[in-house]
Amino acid sequence: MNIQNLEAFLYxxxxxxxxxxxxxxxxxxxxVSSRIRTLEKELNVALFERVGxxxxxxxxxxxxxxxxxxxxxxxxxxQKRMKETAATDHIVIGVTGLIANYVMPYxxxxxxxxxxxxxxxxxxxxxxxxxxxxxxxxxxxxxVRASAHPSLEKTAILQTxxxxxxxxxxxxxxxxxxxxxxxxxxxxxxYECGSLDxxxxxxLFFNAAHVPTITYEVDSLETAKGLILENAGIGxxxxxxxxxxxxxxxxxxxxxxxxxxxxxxxxxIHYIGEKPPYFxxxxxxxxxxxxxxx
Length: 294
Hints:
Elements: H1 3-15, H2 18-25, H3 29-43, E1 48-51, E2 54-57, H4 59-86, E3 90-95, H5 97-102, H6 104-114, E4 119-124, H7 127-135, E5 141-144, E6 152-167, H8 180-183, E7 188-191, H9 196-206, E8 214-218, H10 221-229, E9 234-238, H11 243-247, E10 251-254, E11 263-271, H12 279-287
Parallel strand pairs: 3-4, 3-5, 7-8, 7-9
Antiparallel strand pairs: 1-2, 5-11, 6-9, 6-10, 6-11
């Protein structure tokens, strides 16, 4: 009996919808339906039936739930035990671009000093890609923007303010509080990362009475920062990625009251009930980033 088919059955039961189950499993709807049909064929019973436009579990399906849960839990417990046995000398982490560039150079040397015999493998991707890898056990620990997946446990690790940065020198440097009206005359570099926090900043632009012109809209922090350093424009960036340039006097951080409360947040994730070795150490060192200069 295929564990993935059992998981599909339990997810459809949990969400009451094949479509929602497919989204949670990062699968297509036909793939989930196919897994359910295969399981029904193996059991020789119908687990669900259509009543109008609704999907209703049959009495056989309801009776099978505790057995499916028991099998899946036993499999995961065994898998966890095998991983614990094998994980003493290797850990696989998945990170977003911001974490890869501005957090891992601080964290990984500390990890290697504490655990010199442990091999580290790191994969970089989007939050959605890292979530999928954690769910499919391809990654032990994920570092993502924010996750709401029910099968993942989350730990808040980072909250970096979003601020306006200009290349030094700039005529804004002696202005105490920058308004949206003042930004209207500037060349704006806008970094688009797709997170909820960043969407709030973007909405401030488009909902302002005087809408600034976004000349450059990029999806790379390094590109956005490079444009600002070359004095091609000014822009909002997560504070963590410009600390060194601020310390070196190359760029200046400015206050813009309308974004004063906005920040970019990050979490660590792992499969629910399966906290991997070294997780707490990684979390501790990552949280230190808020208190150190990089």
